[in-house]
Amino acid sequence: MFAYIGRRLLLMIPTLLGVLTVTFIIMQFVPGGPVEQVMARLQGTSIHGEGADSAGGYHGNEGVDPAQIEAIRHEFGFDVPPLTRYVRMLTHYARFDLGQSFFQHRSVWALIVSKLPVTVTLGTCTLLLTYLIAVPLGIAKALRRGTAFDFATSAALLAAYAIPGFVLGVLLMMLLSGDLFLHVFPLGGFGVESHDTLPLAQRVLDRLWHLVLPVTASVTSSLAVVSFLTRNAFIDELSRQYVLTARAKGVSRGAVVWRHILRNALIPIATGLPAAFVSAYVSGSLLIETLFSLDGVGRLSYDAIVGRDYPVVLGVLFVFTVVSLFAKLAGDLAYALIDPRIHFGGNGR
Predict the structure, then answer these.
(1) Dihedrals φ, ψ of 52, to 5°?
(2) Sign of the CA dihedral running 106, 107, 110, 111
(3) What's the pTM?
(4) What are the BP-aspect GO terms (predicted)?
(5) Which of 5, 188, 203, 215 could form a disulfide with 292 if both were Cys (CB 3.0 to 4.6 A apart)?
C-alpha cells in the first residue's frame, strides 16, 4: 500500500509539470498581456477598444515613454527570457510560493485563502446533496427496476443531465429571482449587506438562502451520474450468488440490502467520488460563481484570466490541479478501505 502511494505521489510531479508548462506556453502567445493592460489603463483606453486597430493589433504603447514601458516590464518580470521566467516559476512553486498578484498587490496565497470560504461552502453543499439524494434514489431505482418509478426517474435524471448547470442557473434566476415571474430568492451574492451584524441563526439562514439557486444549478446535472452508477452497481450485486444464498437461508431482503449488498456496491460509487469532488469544487465553481456573483476562487480565476493576472491564473491552476490529483488518489485508496480483497501491491501487501 505504501509503495503504491509513493508511486502515485511521484507520478503527480510530471502531471503537474505538464499542466503548468502547457498553460505557461499558451500565456506567451495570448494578446493583451499584463504590460498592455497597464498601458491601456494609464492611457484610459481599452486593449479591445480604442487601443486596437481593425486588424486586431495593439497600438496602445505608441507615444509612451519607452523607459516607462521598460519599468513596467521589469516590475512584472518580463524583462528576462521566457525560459528564465519558467524556471523561476517552477523554483518558487517547488517551495509552494505562488508569488504576488500583478494588479491586486497581495500574495496569491492570501487571495486564494480569502476566497476559499465561498468555494468550500458551495462545493461542500453540492457534494453532500448530490450523494444524499443520488445514492438513495439509485438504490430505490435498483429495487424497483422496470417499474414506472424507474422509468419516470430515469427520464427526469436524463433531462436534468442534458441541461448544463450554467444554463439551468440562468433559467432559475429568470424564474425565481427576476421581475418577470417570481422574486423569491436573491439574484446573487453570498449574503445581505448587513450580514455581519445579524445574529448567528439569521446569518446561517441568510447564507443558505443565497445558496439555494447556485447549489441547485450545481447539483442537478450531477445527480444522473451518481444515481445511475448506484442503480447499476446494486442491480449487479442483486444477481450475485451470495445474495441468493442469503435469501434461501431466510435472511430478510432489507438485511441483505443494507448488510451485504451496500458494502460491495459502494466500490463503483467510490470510483465516481473523485470526479464528483473535482466537479463540485473545481470545474463547476468558475461558471456558477461568476453567474451568481459569488466571490470565490472560481470568480477569482475568471477575473484573473480576463485581466491577464498571470500569477493568480497559474497559482489557482496549481492549487486546483494538486487538489484534483489528491482527490483521485483518495478515490483509489477508498477501494482498499471498502473491500479488503483489493490490494495495490503485487504481493498482496
Answers:
(1) -115, 145
(2) positive
(3) 0.79
(4) microcin transport; transmembrane transport
(5) 188
Residue with cell 519599468: 71
Contact predicate 144/232, CB 8 Å: no
CA distance 32 to 88: 23
Strands annotated E in 194-343: none
Q: List the grid coordinates of 112.
A: 486564494
Residue 148 CB-density burial (10 A; 0-12 exposed, 13-18 middle, 19+ buried):
exposed
| 192 φ, ψ (degrees, to nearest 5) | -75, 165
Q: C-alpha grid cell for residue 164?
A: 448544463
Burial-class residue 54 by CB neighbours within 10 Å (0-12, 13-18, 19+).
exposed
C-alpha cell at 110: 492570501
Q: Can you tell me whether residue 148 is helix, strand or coil?
A: helix
Q: Which CATH architecture has domain 108-338?
A: Orthogonal Bundle (1.10)
At 50 the pLDDT is 43
- pLDDT greater than 60 at residue 235: yes
314-345: buried (b, 16+ CB within 10 Å) or exposed (e) per residue? bbbbbbbbbebbebbbebbbbbeebeeeeebe
Among all chains, which residue has been given the C-alpha cell 443565497?
210
CATH 1.10.3720.10 spans which residues of the chain?
Answer: 108-338
Q: The C-alpha cell of 291 is what?
A: 453567474
Cβ atoms 47, 38 nearer than 8 A: no
SS3 content of the chain, % helix, strand, coil (to 5): 75, 0, 25
Nearest to 216 by CA among 208, 204, 225: 208
Mean pLDDT for 287-300 is 86
What's the sign of the alpha-carbon dihedral 34, 36, 42, 45?
negative
